[in-house]
Q: What sequence folds into this?
């Protein structure tokens, strides 16, 4: 794999991404920087095919990249494009007015914008706050024997659940429950809220066990919800309209999307590009995924990326994802600072 073959491979991938058609030696001979004859290019392309980086779909056709060709291209040969000022402004406009951006709105807007820009499916996974602790629990009466449990954790996650009881609670019972939870659960890690621990808490309620046990069970269910990764998909129709995918695999992907969140929450830094052939459990065959982390302060808060075919303009899409994750991190970190300021 001398430098010339690497240049030819990069040129084939670039041309195939652009046209979607098998690439011949004549097209490569016109690429700047490849100053050799078409015959030499044909020989090098044949060698690249033998090495597994290119393949020939038909005997008389040119060549297209294989999975290994894409991997080598992304890891060593690709030149990522820089966003222009006008492109940055366009992306900002797609996110919405900066003064009105919240955690929920910017993540939702970034997913929709990515799907629109890339014609792929955008995926967002919120990292499970396993190491966060309970900072506050509120019980709010909302109707006859109906109460809302509000759970807030140290990483800013907020969960609520409606809970219907057998009896209406008086002020004394609500006050007891508030102090009981504060003494026994405030500062406790979400990961530690096992069913066994909750059963012990229920038993320790003593005379209040019959009336307050459903609230404790509701808290347990909320904590379990927080431990599950949640995946949001934008632009599913882009996957369905892609002729390179099996439609049944797309349906399974959408139905089991939260299982797919584990791929996005693997530990990595920067941008990661994955291919279905590298992951046995990757639901959609012949697909690729580009994903990047966003953060809240010094903690990972989630992942943003796209799922699409292997033939993608990686050099163009990667800067989009990097820019959006950077903007999300800025908004989330500002909210985190504001939250910390209010606590102090």
A:
């Amino acid at each position: 794999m001398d430098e010339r073959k690497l240049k030819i491979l990069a040129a084939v991938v670039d041309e195939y991404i652009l046209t979607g058609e098998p690439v011949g030696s004549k097209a490569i001979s016109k690429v700047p920087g490849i100053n050799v004859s078409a015959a030499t290019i044909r020989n090098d392309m044949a060698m690249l095919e033998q090495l597994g980086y290119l393949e020939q779909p038909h005997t008389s056709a040119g060549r297209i990249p294989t999975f290994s060709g894409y991997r080598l291209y992304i890891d060593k040969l690709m030149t990522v494009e820089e966003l222009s000022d006008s492109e940055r402004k366009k992306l900002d406009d797609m996110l919405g007015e900066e003064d009105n951006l919240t955690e929920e709105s910017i993540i939702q807007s970034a997913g929709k914008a990515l799907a629109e820009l890339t014609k792929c499916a955008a995926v967002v996974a919120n990292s499970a706050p396993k190491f966060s602790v309970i900072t506050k629990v509120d019980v709010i009466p909302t109707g006859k024997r109906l109460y809302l449990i509000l759970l807030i954790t140290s990483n800013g996650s907020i969960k609520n659940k409606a809970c219907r009881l057998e009896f209406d609670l008086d002020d004394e019972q609500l006050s007891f429950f508030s102090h009981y939870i504060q003494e026994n659960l405030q500062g406790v890690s979400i990961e530690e809220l096992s069913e066994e621990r909750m059963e012990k808490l229920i038993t320790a309620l003593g005379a209040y066990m019959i009336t307050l046990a459903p609230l404790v069970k509701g808290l347990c269910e909320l904590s379990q919800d927080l431990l599950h990764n949640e995946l949001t998909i934008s632009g599913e129709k882009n996957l369905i309209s892609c002729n390179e995918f099996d439609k049944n695999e797309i349906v399974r992907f959408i139905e089991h999307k939260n299982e797919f969140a584990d791929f996005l929450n693997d530990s990595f830094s920067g941008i990661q590009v994955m291919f279905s052939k590298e992951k046995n459990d990757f639901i959609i065959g012949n697909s690729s995924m580009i994903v990047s982390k966003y953060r809240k302060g010094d903690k990972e808060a989630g992942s943003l990326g796209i799922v699409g075919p292997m033939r993608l303009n990686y050099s163009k899409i990667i800067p989009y994802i990097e820019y959006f994750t950077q903007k999300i991190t800025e908004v989330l970190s500002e909210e985190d600072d504001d939250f910390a300021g209010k606590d102090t």
Remarks:
- Strands lie at 54-55, 64-65, 121-126, 134-143, 146-153, 158-164, 230-234, 271-275, 287-296, 299-309.
- The mean pLDDT is 87.
